[in-house]
Amino acid sequence: MKFPFLQGKKPPDMFRELQQVLGNCAPTEQTFRKWYRLFAEGRESVGDNDRSGRPMTATYETVVKKVQELLDDDRLRTCEELGEDVGVSAGSVHTILTERLHLQKKFCKWVPHLLTGEDFLSRIVAGDETWVYSWDPETKAQSAEWLPAHSPRPQAIRKQGALKIMHVMFFDSQGILLNWAVPQGTTVNGDYYKSCAQQYERSAPGLLESGVILLHDNAPAHRKHNVVELLSKWGWEVLQHPS
């Protein structure tokens, strides 16, 4: 602080210059104003005045211990905050942190998401095709027979009808998201599966920003280039299907 004072600089300029070097560990502007006033009054020494009471070594060790305890409670505290709590300057705290406790201030590494198991499952969307068979049951009146009063009720076997329809479905942990009936005579190829995925995306606004994890099997339609390209464009993650 004395050097910039001798250069004729004012406390705000002194503070800004040192803050660029030490960041949050720089002394406060009030501290600069205090020392500026002391130098202007004729003070030469930059060291602490002699004090009565406990030896400096014992006091320093107490401060180091207190700084360590405060950091154990909150690793995000700044030098300035720690200095205010233990009664020393931010610069002294910085020395304690780096030279006595051998600590470094490391910045967080940003990652896309920190997911819990529930978050992960809620992002999974499963897609698949399945046959849905039609049934043509008789009405209750049509199946009634005239039998003796005390005889057991007759049993009817439900028979599968000849009609079946392919459905393309997408569903998540909450239920069905899209149930698409494939017209008769239509083959579920890459183009058709892509159109179903696009229909699903249009039905759920904001889906592209939700980080979808898609689970579907290794059917040829799912592995087509146009399908893979579309999912990559959307940023959807495709889970490897269990073998």
From TrEMBL:
Family matches, as InterPro entries: Mos1_HTH (IPR041426), RNaseH_sf (IPR036397), Transposase-MT_Hybrid (IPR052709), Transposase_1 (IPR001888)
Identify the domain of life. Eukaryota
Where is each Mos1 transposase HTH domain found? 3-42
For this protein, the parts annotated as crossing the membrane are none
Q: Which Pfam families match?
A: HTH_48, Transposase_1
So which residues are the signal peptide here? Answer: none
MF (Gene Ontology) = nucleic acid binding
Q: Which named protein is this? A: HTH_48 domain-containing protein
Species name for this entry? Macrostomum lignano
